[in-house]
Amino acid sequence: MIGLSEVVASFDDPADNLAFDEALLRAAPEAPVLWIWRNTDCVVVGRGQKIEREVKADVCASDGVPVLRRASGGGTVFHDPGNLNITLVLPGPSDRPLEALGELMTATVAELGLPSRLGDRGLFVGDAKLCGFAVFRTRTGLLAHSTLLVSTAAERVGRYLTAAPADPRPLDSHRSRVASLAEHGLRKGVADVTAAVRVAAAAQLGELATRKPADKELEWHRSLQHTRYHYPEWHAEGAQRK
């Protein structure tokens, strides 16, 4: 098995976390990289999505919940400290990146003692979505990331995300009922769930070694903060600063 490194890093600003998420891919690692992270309350739309079709912007504004954009496709998600984010960066081409991520999250949930099934861009327990998946590729590799609802209440998700529009479009989120581990009766803390991710990742990708961010990752982080994640037009419309 090839080696796997886990980057240990966190940032106070959700936009900075999203910038670092993309930076891990842009830095073109030669071996798989794992990053496990959380955000404060925010809504994150997919790369090409329209905010007005996905988000109750007035409610977000009233509650002080920022609406942000990531570089990958996929659907809109709600982040809060009860929602764990798992980023997996794989070097080189891969025909089935979602399969690798699906295997990781399936094994994680099994480690926690729950049966699950892979469905449309996510992992389900029964008919409720527990994890959502998204992918972003470059010429040198790919990033696949997942949310994992540890304790986030479904009502909080529904407060900020819209119902399905009457006129479906290709980039719209695929709406599903969601339920957290806690709502399935599994009241594990974030530390226990993080440990389960690490066990599953090491079994799938090789012995895991933790490290600090590399200089190249931090350079990309600063660049992406400038061109995207600290630029309001990126979050509003997907436009980059020149």
Automatic annotation (TrEMBL):
PROSITE patterns: BPL_LPL_CATALYTIC (PS51733). One of its GO terms (biological process) is protein lipoylation. It comes from the Bacteria. Keywords: Ligase. This is Lipoate-protein ligase A. Transmembrane segments: none annotated. GO terms for cellular component: cytoplasm. Pathway: Protein modification; protein lipoylation via exogenous pathway; protein N(6)-(lipoyl)lysine from lipoate: step 2/2. The lineage of its organism: Bacteria, Bacillati, Actinomycetota, Actinomycetes, Pseudonocardiales. Residues 28-209 form the BPL/LPL catalytic domain. It comes from Amycolatopsis keratiniphila. GO terms for molecular function: ligase activity; lipoyltransferase activity.
